[in-house]
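Dear U.,

For the methods section draft, I wanted the exact inputs and outputs in one place so we can describe them consistently. I've listed the two proteins in the order they'll appear in the manuscript figures. Please don't edit the token lines directly; just add comments below if something needs changing.

First protein:
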Amino acid sequence: MYSSIQRTDEARKVFDSMESKDTVAWNSMLDAYVSSGNLDFALKLFRFMPKRDLFSLNIMLSGYANLGNMDSAKAVFDEIPVKNLISWNSMILACGNYGDMEEALRVFDEMPERDVISWNTLLGAYLNNKMFDEVILLFYKMKDEDIIPPDYLTVTTALSACADLGSLEKGREIHIYALEKRLTSSMHVTTSLIDMYAKCGCLESFLIVFYKSQVRDVFCWNALLSGLAIHGYGVIALKVFDEMLQRTKPDDVTFIALLNACSHSGLVKEGQTLFNSMEINYNVTPKIEHYGCLVDLLGRAGCLEHAYKVIDEMPFRPGKSILGALLGACVNHRDVVIGEKVVKILLQSYGDDGLNDGDYMMVSNLYASCECWHEADRWRAMMNDSGIVKTAGLSSITIGNRVHNFLAGNFDFEFS
């Protein structure tokens, strides 16, 4: 009981009060530490265990796997005399969280047997490491082998990859597969379908998916609102929000979607009203992401002094994305005065080393927009002197089951 609710202090008191402790007691305490993220305490307990079994080793392995500590996970993995599916799956997770997908695939290929969790763990690792085309390839391999059928999580992961790639063709194919296998009743699949169609530009499709769904949780509503925000349907998003309030309680993600919708639609007053009502009316405390949305809303509308005031007074250290949004607005509205204030905060917070190619180019463009050519050239020279290379643009097309990426200026691709 204590372990399940992660009250490790109480669990440890009970554990210490036990006159005799069997392996189950040791493992329960170990699991409590790992589940609550107290890996240092777990390791100390692990070292003092009079006897370790497969369950003990798998607990420690999963703890290291969740942290992406591949070396420690490998040491525990090698200590297991007879590995079960949990052992192998945890090792794939460890490699994925560490970012070594070559090793993750090697472990996957060496497995004497696999279950759906094995496939989903590798798929999730590819997704988390932004190897989206590999997600799609692995999904089709799993489907075509037809040994272990994809489940709702498999489909959700594959759809997320399609969304990030903007691959509508593959997204539709996976949607058809989900319909054939009756997996669309899962809210996870529904939410992923809405997200995929929205990011691929299919307004009609994501609306159909939403309104055909039998049950709509907050994640489903948020996906719909985010889709409307992407396409600038702010007025519709606000109407959908009113409909949502009759059925579901909004959360912090709801307001990120709504503020983005207002920002992309120029609904400044409505966006400010929403932001100010979050805590009062809905008991949702604004996070830095909400402040970022508000700054973007005001910046796009040209309310640059107001946007700067929000940054100056917000209870968070401004991140580069927020400062970059306001700096971009200063470029668009040719406001060097506010722009220079933002640059000053950037340099104070991150220094020259903290600036990337986009930051340098934005500052240079700020001065160029106001015909301050000397300063524009100086910032371009600073970027060149720092050794930073401007990131090339990226495009992609689908050929077969693979999505091929192209860097701008690269003419070496065999199909081009």
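Second protein (the one for the lower panel):
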Amino acid sequence: MITNGQGEFAISPDLLLSELFRSHPDTRIVFDRYGLRGCGGPLGPSESIRFFARAHGVDELTLLRELEQAVAAPRPRSHCAAPMRLAPELADSIYRRYFLAGIAVVLSAGASWGAWLLWTIGLNGSFRAVSVHAINAHGEAQIFGWVGLFIMGFAYQAFPRLWQTTLVAPRLAVVAFGLMVGGLFVRTVGISAAEAWTLAAPLALTGGLMQVAAVGLFTSQLLVTFWRSGAVVEAYVGFVVAALGWFLLSTVFSVWHSWHTMTAPDVDALVWAIATYQAPLRDLQIHGLALFMILGVSLRMLPAIYGLPRVPERWAWWLLSLLTGAVVGETIVFLAYRWTGYHLIAMGLVPIWAIMTATILVLVLQWRPWRPMPEPDRTGKFVRAAYLWLPVSLVMLLVMPVYNRLVGVSFSHAYFGATRHAITVGFITLMIMGMAAKVVPTLNGIDPRTLSSLRGPFLFVNLGCVLRVTMQIATDWIHAAYAPIGLSGILEVAGLAWWGLGLVVVMRRGRHAEVVATSSPAPAQIEANHRVADVLEWFPRTEEVFLRHGFTALKSAVLRRTLARQVTVAHAAALRGVSLTNLLKDLNDLAYEPVMELPVLSADTYSCTKGGLQ
């Protein structure tokens, strides 16, 4: 215990939450008001009070004052007091299923399938050696299964806490997960079988509609959650809301595009559809959804996590306006060029890309990623590298007309593909890896100092990306450049597998801690946020109280093992329409009734420690 020199507990900004909760578990309710709820396991995340205040946008002095008041006037405890434990709820761990599924996708239909396609291209010496439908199926798996699932999992977990509220209808997040994963599987199978099965197109359409429903649920939940929170509309929120709009729009566009290409009557129609709609679709998904979401999270979290300077709010709104105009502009201009066939219209893309590049450079110069982070962290190198790859990819895009003229072609597929890889792997993938490696240990209450530095995954993915970008461009000049392209995919998959395995281990450790916590000693008193199943485990005789208040479903052993483990006492009272105050009073009265007043049949049947009775 930390004291102030007079034997009293002293709270300082540098005090770790775990140390505070060990000595004063009742103070956790203060942090819950500001978004902690369920994060970090029984003893909270391994972070200081100062870090928590900065990350959650709480005034540090106000937080310290509230904690001092909580310590000075703790809640009364009974004679069998024990450390209080918060029962994790569904919304507290919803990210896990999304992150685990995202890792599974990227190591199967995502990066691994992409690596196999690269080997095929390298061995055959041509980018036309693989089916366009296989490439599209792989691309959709990457966008929805890798990027999409991680965005959804992070957003469900982080945004309600940043807005200091709770997620609206958290069970819908499970429905959205099922729709997204199921739709992704069905759609990927359908697109990849386009040339071999007559029912492939309807199958892909079915999967696509499931994904549209998933994105619609996800978007609606977050918007309603923000509206109910009453939080201030800051620039980062503007980026997040715009990203949600791009997500929904690009998903609908993607489903239509898949149907359009899979039902093309001949090769010419297929080529025209891909040449016309593929680039705008990827712009909406990459420059719209992914870029806007990452920028929104970065504006809010990077200064708090790594000590980077905050971007002035007015600047951030200008960045949002310029980038929104750029994404809308590049989409409309390219479609107009393809629909009319006037190459002069295509020149309008250059000033749009220039605006986008200049806007990003303003942000990058503010954060100076070529310098070490003000507050070093093992994940900082991923963020720094990502924000170096981002301007590189945009500058490459900006000078593409010059490159095409230099090569002597109207359009270089190899060069354009290299620009896409620079932003999808160099920027988006590295940001996902870095942010996930930062937040997952925090959410699971694991000290990141006990984990590896992640240098291996970082080097593998970056080397693979450099090799892919350079060698793909080099294929315009020398045929031998095709050979090492396959190696680039192997390096990236190896790095992702290394990183992904580490993330899975951390999540399993966190899950194990929750299971151990569930069997911990009975608390000082039954609280509203305790799960019904835990209360019954600690105090078996409380079943009669629940039954008396109308919870007859608890007679079913199946429901006790399933539903009761997900529902807190407060939620149960609300669902049944009974008084929470009366329910808690009756539960505590029976749970802490003196042992001698209980009918004792035998020493074996009722020990003094049975169910926490002492």
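Candidate sentences for the figure legend, describing the second protein: The two ends are 27 Å apart (CA to CA). Residues 131 and 192 are 9 Å apart (CA to CA).

Thanks,
Y.
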